[in-house]
Write a structure and sequence with these properties.
alpha+beta
């Protein structure tokens, strides 16, 4: 299973800390610890739309405060940096697939009713 993680490499300012807390629900001390240790602040399953939505919100908040961060795509065998543009595109693609599935389910339900 592929996971996407985010590591913050910026100084921990109060605005940045509150943005991270809002999206991760981690305590401020845990956030500061993760930042200082270059540890992952959030890890999401790339097929879970709800989790991806939360990470997208965090990424947008970090961009707003000009934070320096890196995204990583990892599975059991490897970990590689994920470009921001690729993350945003994969998020949109995932959402489109979910929308298509819902439409297909609606069509199949209508056919079953006939």
């Amino acid at each position: 299973m592929t996971k996407i993680t985010i590591i913050i490499q910026s100084e921990s300012t109060s605005n940045l800390l509150m943005t991270i807390k809002k999206h991760t629900a981690l305590s401020l001390s845990v956030i500061k610890n993760h930042i200082s240790n270059n540890s992952s602040l959030m890890e999401v399953d790339n097929v879970n739309n709800e989790e991806m939505e939360k990470m997208k919100g965090l990424v947008e908040g970090l961009i707003k405060y000009k934070a320096n961060f890196k995204l990583y795509d990892q599975d059991e065998d490897c970990k590689e940096e994920l470009p921001l543009e690729h993350f945003m595109n994969s998020f949109e693609l995932s959402r489109q697939i979910a929308d298509d599935r819902e439409r297909l389910d609606d069509i199949l339900v209508e056919e079953d009713d006939e």
